[in-house]
Each structure stands twice: as structure tokens, then as C-alpha cells.
Amino acid sequence: MKFTSLIGFVAALLLALTLCLCARASNQTSMEILHSFGDGSVVQDGLIPAKLILGTDGNYYGITCVGGSGTIMQELLRYIPNGDVEIISSMPGGTVFRMTPSGHVSIMHNFGDPTVLNDGGDPWDLIEGKDGNLYGVTYGGGMEDAGVIFQITMASPSQYKILHDFGDGSVPNDGQIPTRIVQGIGGDNNFYVVTWNGGSAGLGTVLTIESTGMKILHSFGDGSVKYDGENPRYCIVGTDGNLYGTTQFGGTTGSGTLFQMTTAGSETILHNFLTGTPAGDGKTPVYLVQDGSVFYGDTLLGGAGGKGALYSYTAGNYSVVHSFGDGTVVNDGNWPDNLAIGADGNIYGFTRYGGATVAADPGRLGFGTLFRISPAGKETILRSLSDGAVANDGRYPQTFVMQTATNTIYGVTMEGGSTTGPYSGLDYGGYGTAYKLPLFGGSMYVLWNKSGQVSLWKIPATGATSSATFGPYSGWTPIALSSDANGNAYILWNSTTGATSVWEVSPSLSVTISQVFGPFSGWVAKSIAVGPDGHVHVLWNQTANNEISIFNITLGQSFVQQVCQHYAGWQANKVATDSNNDTWVLWQSTPVTDTAVLWNITSGGVLNSYVLGPFAGWQPQDLAIGPDNVARVLWVNTKTKQASVYSVPTRGSITSQAFGPYTGWTPADLAVNIDGDSFLMWNNTSNQTSLFDIATAGSFTSSAYGPYSGWQAIALAPGP
Fold first, then answer.
1. What average pLDDT does this structure show over 212-217?
2. Of all helices (H) and strands (E), which one includes residue 296?
3. Distances (CA, A) of 68 to 74, 108, 359, 396, 664
4. Preceding omega of 157 cis (within 30 degrees of 0)
5. Distance CA 36, CA 183 (A)
6. In terms of domains, do 412 and 492 share one?
7. Does residue 70 sit within a domain?
8. Shared domain check, 584 and 466
9. CA distances in angstroms from 76 to 362, 459, 591, listed in the order given
10. Are residues 427 and 448 in the same domain?
11. C-alpha pair distances (Å), 293 with each of 99, 154, 239, 310, 655
12. Is the domain of 602 the same as that of 520?
């Protein structure tokens, strides 16, 4: 199938464009700034946060590279995409802080404390031990300015002590510049530490802290392992109890290695990066995370696009999942780092650079992105940092926590926020932020109607369905459903008077806002969608001549009316939005025939028009946009009641998936959830409903509901 063009029709659409657009922000998913470091709300606040973890007490704990009240001055470095290192400034040695879920920050320790002999500086990693204490490492400070390992209690006031001072002579060849600390699993309570430099060959070490003291498990480059890695950056403890980690250099190509190491120090090289197998392999690996039997990791450089790669490894099989900068995703990031597995099974992470702000940051190629990638390699950009959509947004993300219970990311950024200050070199202003980013889950909302009474169901991917019932309300009928990036549902109601009402319903299924519009003589509301900026879009149709109007609503406040001229023989009946804040409109020919026109109005003011059909015997019925920003159009065969879902990308070929016919069943609605699955709703004459969960590969599972006397399922939307 291919696009066809109706030149006169498209020309008319372009002529109407100036009447039909208004300015919109271009953010993707709603972000809340919890704290701007150095804003004066915390005395001697830390600056440049570098790590954040979730404590067992429900608070978040983190470190800042510099700032605080310490007396030791640390030279702050920034690594930039071409591989060079910048010296930004010399500042106090950093802090350990506690942050409540609402963003209240308190300082637990100032590095460079004059009361602590040879205190560390420039902290880099932090974990919570099995004993409930915090443990971490610093890049600098200590007797030889080679870093320290520290312990700090979570109680208030906190008690701080140094467990090891690198280079103090107590452990020969112990390493320099520790980058990672982890603790064993099961009955193994030992801590394991990776150092970037030092050891017998000067190329880094892995050490263990046991009850009897510290010992070196392995010195990289010492000759015990052929083509050993150099400069280890990261490690985790696998579910089998072994250590798995990466070296940024060394191996057969000098581009780094993926290794396994027993707790006794026996090392095995699992992969040498940039060997040419597979093609488009990454180089300079960093982060690593495990999901069942599969390890996922990322590389700062390499890949088919030259801007890093996400890879998987399992049982000897290594493959590249996604190459950043390869052109498959607009405004893709650069330098991926920090990975986590979501409750939906997707991989979440950030890029330190890149995104939609490249033009605003030419020296470093963009302020960074937050992304989601499916195990099959499909990427969605959740946020481009400092793209203007969030006030006092951060820049250059550092680390984040995936809060799977609430499907929310909590993270920190290196720069940005509401504050500038006396330190030179922070050329874009601000000393970093802590933020909260809610995400969609894998659930679905289903809206049921019974003579003006409604029931809203929330069906999770796993677990029990919850519901709430509203009404009946005399003269009002629910007609459409949508949802936003925070998981709120929006119900569109029409009245016999011609008025329309929009309800916002929270994920807990309580009505938080309701607002009435109209009546407007001759106009009928047809469809509702919610953009990533939180604005509600309601599509209206003029019954006399099929003119349309789209209301861009800040719910509870005002709206902007966008009027478009009518087009003889055409009627618009569906509106949708995508993660770029583009507006999509589905037009049908009238009387309804076998041809449709799909509008894509970009946030930048460009109108794209796609003509679909004609397809004999089929009618367009519904429109949904997936997290990949691909439009899905539901077509129904008027005779057989078969369904066909057309995927219409902004570039490339249209694909279609056909379903049915199923005796007595009729396709009713279409939605797409967070993992890109299409949900197709079917109704039968007995008021039963069936939901098809259609994977991107085309296979599907189905769930049936009802019958419920007098109730009819009328609409779907993605849930929280």
C-alpha cells in the first residue's frame, strides 16, 4: 500500500492552516522539578548531583559531586562527547543528602569535613547495605587524593566514618579512583569495589571488603587474563552471585570489555567491543542491568549511528538492540547511560547529550534525553531535557531510580534548575535538579455506558480490575475517552442541549475536574485527546457544513479555539495527539465510503496529509497514536464486520493487520498502550466485550467481559 495525493484537497488544507494552528509546547511526558540544587532553600546545599537511590525507609538518598561546607576543594571535571575532559571549576568536596518523595532535601554529610581526618571528596557512588547503613565511594580526597570508601548511618543525626583510604599503604596496589560499590546477594554480605586506576598494572582493580579486611580480587592488565580489559567503570552482582561488569578500554580492540568474575577473583571475558561482530557494535561500555537471564548494557560511543548503543547478552549470545543516532528516531540522544527495567519489561535510560535541544547547545550536542526501548529495539523519547516545556528544567541527566510500584522515574541532572551562583564554568546556569517523571503503565481504561450512567474500568496488565460508577445524569451521554501522561482519564459528555462537558478522572478513579462548554449553535463535540503538555483537545463538527473546530483547553481555565473551513464531502470525526505534541485528525468522506484522509499537524506548524484508500467495502472508524508516534487507523468491513488496523508512519510504508470475522461480534474502538501494543475492542449483540491485545509482531491475546445487563462498552484509552 502507498500514499496517494489529492492535490486540490491538500492545497485547501494548506490554505486553512493559518486558521487551524496555535503555539504548543513540545514536551513529551509530564515532569515535575522537585528541587533545584543551590537555590538557597538548603543552607550550604550540594551542587552537581551525581547519584540517587531509593532507601528502604521510602526516602531518596544521593550525593553531589561538589558544594557543601567542606574545606577540601575538588576540581570538577566534565566529560564531553568527543572524548575530551573539561575542567569546570574548583569547588568544595560534595555532600550526601536525603530527599523526601516530595522533594525536601537535608544534608547528611559535607565531604572535606575538617573534623574527619583525610576525608574524601567528589563522591561518585552510593548504595544502601543490608544493615540499613549507606555505603559509598569518592573519586578524590583521602591521604593520597585517590578516594575513600565510607559508611554513613541513615539515622538523624547521621554518623560518618571512613572504611578505607586508597593509597594509604594498608593494602598494597589497592587501586585509585573508585567508581562502584556493590554488596553480595544471599548469604554473601561482602562489599565489592571497582577502581578506575591503580593495582599492580595501574589499570584498575576489583576488591572485596570482608569481615577480616580488604583484599584484591583482580588487577586488570596483570597478565593473568589474555586481552584483559582496562579501566573498569561499572559492575553488578548477578542473580548467580557472580560479578558482571564493564571496562571502558582494553580487550582485543582497545574499546572495552564485558566480563564475569567470581567472588574469588576468576575472570572471564564475555565480549570484546567493536570487533566487527555484530556489525554496528558499540565501544566504551558503561552501565549494566540484569533482567532474568538477560543482561542489558550501553556504550557511550559506537553503534551504527556513532552515538552509542544498547546491547543484550545472554548465555553467550551478544546482540545490539538499538543504535543511537542511526536515524530511526528523531532527536535521538547521544552518550546513553544509566539503565533500569520497568514494570512493563521495557528498558529505561538516559543519554547525557542529544535530543531536541541540539541547536540550543551546539558545543555539547544537546542537553540530553530520557528514553524507553523495548527488548525488540523500539525506542521512544520520553523527554528532551530543557526543551522549554518545563520551567527550570535540568540539563545533562546523571542518574535515576525506576520506582516500579508507582511506575515513576526519580532522577537528578548535572546542571540546570532555577539557580545560578558564584562558581565559574557552569556556562548554562544552574547547579542541577532532582525531578519526578510519571509514566504510563500497561493498563487500559474501558468506558461503559448504561442510559447516561457510566462505569470506568481500569484493567491492569496483571492483577484485579478496579472500577467506579457515575450518574446517571439526565440529558447527558458519554461519547469518548482519552488519558494523559500522568494516567488521568478524560471523559467527554454531550448534552441534549448541545453543551459538552469534560471530566478529568484520577488514576484512583475519582473525578478531579469537570468543565462545561457551550452550547454552540449547530456544533457537536465528536472526539477528545490529551497532549503531553496536559492540554485537552476537543474536536467539534458543524452539522450544517462539516466545518470543524478544535478546542485547545487548559482544563479548569481557558481554551483556544482553532477553526478550520469545511471541505465538501468530508467529515472529521476523530482527534489524537502524539508525544511530539502533534495533532492528528481523521476525516471520512460523506456519505461514509471507503476513503479516509489523515492529518498530521506538527507542533512546528507543518501540515501533512495522507489519503488512505479507497478500499472497497471498508470504512475508517477510529484513530489511535502509539508511543512510537505511528498512527493506527481502524477500518471495519461493512458486510463481514472484519477489522483491519493500518499503521501509518510519518515516513515509510503503511502496514496492516486483519482480524475476524467473528460471528456476532463487531469492532468498536482502538487504543495503544505504553509497550506499543494495539488494543482492539469488540462488542457483540449480547452486550459482551472482548479486548484483543495485539503485539507489534501481529500475534494477540484476548479477554472477554460481560454480558452486563443494559451496559455497553463504548471506548478505550491507555491507563496508568
1. 92
2. strand 294-302
3. 12, 10, 33, 21, 70
4. yes
5. 31
6. no
7. no
8. yes
9. 21, 49, 68
10. no
11. 33, 33, 9, 17, 33
12. yes
Peptide bond into 661 cis (omega under 30): yes
CATH of the domain at 521: 2.130.10.10
Query: How is residue 234 written as a grid cell?
Result: 561499572
Contact 585, 539 (CB under 8 A): yes
Same domain, 431 and 555: no
Report yes or no on 709 lying in a domain: yes
Query: Do 334 and 366 contact (CB within 8 A), yes or no?
Result: yes
Phi, psi at 208, each rounded to 5°: -130, 145
Highest mean pLDDT among 157-166, 365-374, 563-572, 580-589: 157-166
What are all long-range contacts of 239-246, with beta carbons under 8 Å and residues at least 24 apart? 239/185, 239/290, 241/184, 241/185, 241/186, 241/188, 243/182, 243/192, 243/206, 244/270, 244/288, 244/290, 244/295, 245/180, 245/194, 245/206, 245/288, 246/285, 246/286, 246/287, 246/288, 246/297
Cβ contact 640:686 at 8 Å: no
The verdict on residue 349 lying in a domain is no
Judge contact between 456 and 470, C-beta under 8 A. Answer: yes
Percent of the chain with pLDDT over 70: 89
Task: Tell me the residue range of the domain where 635 lies.
Answer: 7-28+441-718
Domain stops at, among 438, 455, 488: 438
User: Could you tell me which of 250, 227, 245, 225 has the C-alpha nearest to residue 235?
Assistant: 245
- Cα-based distances in Å from 210 to 44, 163, 214, 261, 636: 36, 11, 6, 17, 67
Using a CB cutoff of 8 Å and minimum separation of 24, what contacts does 366-371 make? 366/333, 366/334, 367/395, 367/396, 367/416, 367/428, 368/333, 368/395, 368/396, 368/397, 368/413, 369/331, 369/332, 369/333, 370/29, 370/397, 370/400, 370/409, 370/411, 370/437, 371/333, 371/336
Buried b (16+ CB within 10 A) or exposed e, 14-53: eebeeebbeebebbbbbbebbbbbbbeebeebbbbbbbbb
**Which of 395, 417, 438 is where one domain is finished?**
438
Residues 420 and 561 in one domain: no
In a domain, 447, yes or no: yes
- pTM, to two decimals: 0.67
Tens of pLDDT, residues 645-676? 999 887 778 889 999 999 999 999 999 986 67
pLDDT digits (tens, 9 = 90+) for 471-483: 999 999 999 999 9
210 closest CA partner among 252, 247, 163: 163
The count of structural domains within the chain is 2
**pLDDT score of 252 more than 90:** yes
- My answer on whether 17 and 122 are in the same domain is no
17 secondary structure, DSSP code: H
Q: Strand (E) positions, 82-147?
A: 85-92, 95-99, 105-110, 120-128, 134-141
Residues 616 and 710 reside in one and the same domain: yes
